[in-house]
Amino acid sequence: MAFQQHDIQFRVLSEQELDAWRAIPPAVASDCMNRTQVMSAAIKPISVGQTLCGQARTVTTMVGDCGPICALISSARPAEIVMVDAGGVEDTAVWGGIMAEEAVHRRLGGAVIDGAIRDVADMRKAGFTMFCRSIVPRGPHHGFGGIIDGTISVAGVPVRSGDIVLGNDDGVVVVPLEQASTVLAAAQAHLLKEEGWIRDIRRGVSIPKMFELPAAK
């Protein structure tokens, strides 16, 4: 079965815009979207301290098939993040070390796999940023069944190519591209507010007093 690719266009963020987003933790971005757009807790980085910040390129693939993912790796632009809907299947990997090598060579921004990967030691050695649901030795086939640049669901979150992907040790949050300016401004203001809260705590203000929480009865 041949894979399909949608013909889409989205606004590519400037490096200055991406720099502003790199200062925004996923948790803060989600707080500014009414605590939505958060992927399942099962999605975690393969190494502590890895971070994601870039625009998504999406692919959905049939169970255990890495063909469409390979096609996207070879055509994605530098700094873009490959977002894979692999159906959440945990016992067959759809990404391995050779794919990570090409992704590093092409300077992609990382990947998020709602499914399994393998060759994790090789990815860590190569310094590739990878978030996934599970790790297993069993490898994929190459049936080429899937769709590139369609709207997908990754661990419970809708993702479209061009959306902003933020990830750290907490997990992954996706900001819809059309909401980017509004969410960024709100997140920057929220971080300034948090700095004020921390200053208050360090001068002795309690959290119940700070947030005017109800007193115990």
List keywords for this structure.
alpha/beta, Glucose Oxidase, domain 1, 7 helices
Number of domains: 1
Order of helices and strands: EHHEEHEHEHEEEEEEHH
Summed up, the helix count is 7
Q: N- to C-terminal separation?
A: 66 Å
Alpha-carbon Rg, integer: 19 Å
Q: Please give the CATH class.
A: Alpha Beta
Task: Estimate percent helicity.
Answer: 25-40%
How would you state the average pLDDT, rounded? 95
CATH architecture: 3-Layer(bba) Sandwich
Number of strands: 11
**Any idea of the CATH topology?**
Glucose Oxidase, domain 1
Q: Largest beta sheet, briefly?
A: 9 strands, mixed
CATH superfamily: Ribonuclease E inhibitor RraA/RraA-like
Shape: elongated
- Strand residues, percent: 15-25%
Counting helices, strands and paired strands, the structural category is alpha/beta
User: Which parts are unreliable, with pLDDT below 50 for 5 consecutive residues or more?
Assistant: none
